[in-house]
Amino acid sequence: MTGPLLEVRDLSVRFDTDDGTVHAVDRMSLELAPRQVLGIVGESGCGKSVTALSILGLLPKTATVTGSARFEGAELLGASRSLLRRIRGREISFVFQEPMTSLNPVLRIGNQIEEVLREHMDLSRAGAKQRAVELLDLVHIPDPHRRVSEYPHQLSGGMRQRVMIAMALACDPKILIADEPTTALDVTIQAGILDLLRELRERLGTAIILITHNLGVVADLADRVVVMYAGRKAEEAPVGELFAHPQHPYTMGLLGAVPRAGAAHNGRLQEIPGRVPSLAELPGHCAFADRCPRADEQSWSEVPSLRRVRPDHTVACFHPGEQ
Q1: Is 88 buried (19+), middle (13-18) or exposed (0-12) by CB count in 10 A?
Q2: pLDDT single digits (tens) 12-51
Q3: Among positive and negative, which fits the CA dihedral 84, 7, 315, 239?
Q4: DSSP states along 305-317
Q5: For the whole model, what pTM was predicted?
């Protein structure tokens, strides 16, 4: 196909709670091309995971979702349950956060992988078990014939994460959504997971949406980056362009907070002053204004819209530029 594999336009998500309406995502748009790795970065609570979950209809009934999300031309928002069940796990798979809580602790690893295969691939029990062993081998789990009969608590954190990836890849999906796939893993295991994702993209041609707060992970794996802040897109660019020429003060703050060997910071890491505004009380002006050294009267009176500042580089800021 020549067009985008996934196209999201003006996606907004709100939750009606006892304390008021929470605007989790506001007019989010993105595109994912075949074989592309798209990184979505931002602080916790900025709307990264909600954006991904809303695409597949995985949010609770308290969520109101508007906009459009088209997969190969088919609209997913508001789609029938039968269509979503056919696409989830088969065409678009999700690697959820916290593999220890995402895996069922009372079922063997093989049983959990086989369930996906029997649901979507119409395999026999013996065929599903053989495929489960092959998938564990694909994600480089040692001795897969033995591991397939073990329980989640018998595996290390890194192995559980690989099991989650194996389950997501069971039906050879076209899109893999990986939500914080390296969280709570040590750096050696993180590197192994990133190598695995890179290998899967090359071997299987899988497009990947990588949700993370770790800019190092984005720099290592992503082709393109979307920076989110307070439920909105703050900046988007190819990964090399974003790191070389950041335009939004928030992006610069994130990059400045990354530890660097030999950097002179008087024993302290750089930090972004202030805090993220409540999504239940989003201001009618730039959400980053009270943390921004460039904020002026316009920043305090209007919400900036996305505009192109460099080739293939957009930013939602009244005063973009390099620092």
Answers
A1: buried
A2: 999 988 878 999 999 999 999 999 999 999 988 899 999 9
A3: positive
A4: PPEEEETTEEE--
A5: 0.91
